[in-house]
Every structure is written in C-alpha cells, then in structure tokens.
Write the structure tokens for this entry.
Amino acid sequence: MSEEAKAVQEIAKTTGKFVELFEKVGAFMSKVIGGASEQVGGILEDWTRYYRYKNLLTIRDKVDALHHRRRIEGKTIPIPLRAAIPMLEAASLEQDTTLQDVWARLIANSMDPNFSEALHPSYIEIIKQMSSDEALILNAFREIDGYPTLFTHHVEQMSGWLAEFTAQPTYEGIYSDYLSWCKTLPLKHPDGARTFLDNLQRLQLIELGFDLSHRAEDNFFEHLKDIGLSDRLLVTLERNEYLRMTAFGEGFVNACIGEAT
C-alpha cells in the first residue's frame, strides 16, 4: 500500500471516530441545554479539538452516574443557556479527573429538579481558578469536626494596650494546625498547602478571624474605666482565632464538591 493510501486510511479512521464523538457530545449538550441538537450546532462548530469531546464524554458519564444514584433519569431539567454554555465550554478543557468530578457535580446539580441549594453563576469562574489539590482540600474540610468551623486556636496574653494586641493577629497556631493536617492528605503538591489556603481565601470560600475578650480580677478595672485609665490597666486578653467556611463557601461545596446535607 502506498504512503498516500495509508495516510487516507488513517484520516478516515480518525474522521469516523471524530464524527462518533461529535454525535454523542451533541446529544449530551442537547440534554443539558434543552431543545434540538441543531440549536447547539453553532457552539460545536467552535470546538474543533478532539480532546475537548473526550473530556465532555467523561464528564457526561459522571453526570449520568450521579443522576442514576439519585434515581432522576428522565426527570432532569435543562440549564439556562447563560450558565450552560460557559459551564460546558470550561468543563471541556479539563483533563484532571478530580476537577472533572467538580464540573460533573455542578452540572448534575444544575439539572437536578430536587437540588435546593443556590447555584451561583460565579461558581464557574471559581472552578476555573482552582487546582485539583484545592478541590481535595475542600472535600476533606467536610470531614472536620465542627464544620463549617475548621480550625480554632486560643491565644491568651497580658497587655495594657488593647490596640497593640488586636492590631494584626498572625494566626500562627491556625496555620500550624492546617499545615499539619494537610500532611495527612494525598496532595499532588504538598509544598503548596499554604498557597492553596491563600487562594481559597481570595476566592472568599474560607475566612480567618477572631473573637476578643478581656478578664479583670476585681472591680478596680471598672473604676479605672470610669476615669479613663482602663487602657493602661494590665489585664488578661483572650483571643479565639478561627478558620471557617464562609456562607458562600458552604454553598459552593454543596453545589460542586459534596452532597448537600
């Protein structure tokens, strides 16, 4: 067989596989968006790279598995185009299996008529800015006792100047506990644990904070307070620092990471 004939044969094989993938993805998108396949033709024309179709088929299987487990096959609802198009486009670029699970869960929940949690449009952009390790950390957060509060640290100090004590807490105890906890997780890049925490804060999924109180041993403190000298009194100040999920973060986890409780 000539080299030209071999080349034509290989092209034919590849084209056949491409057409098959094209048809399967078209059916999946039609189901997600609602309506006939022709309505999504314009979208598919822009997606010419073979691997994007394979990624979507993998995610389709994950979505179907979630819907099968919930016994809602045939009862799903279409996702509004405003959310469905950027969601599918971003998901089709993802090859990491952990993040494919995240996309699949968001798509599955968006199509689930029984899912009552808010599905914020910004979830799409958040997933695009996350690493697979951060998704793993968020999933593991759900197993921490006291969730949505994740880590707490009690600080006690003698001080005569309240402003000095409360200026800028370092959260050293919180960071230490968090980094030790991360060592128990199968992270791909464990050295990036501190960066992952900063990014999750930047995305407003988690927050650091503290509650402050003081203790005085006798009524003399109240007397000094009345005459304006309380800021010079040596008192015991207690600070309870915490790392916790934001309300927005809890919604994201329920919609994209784990089952709503």
Remarks:
- The chain is about 55% helix and 10% strand.
- Strands lie at 149-159, 206-215, 235-245.
- The two ends are 63 Å apart (CA to CA).
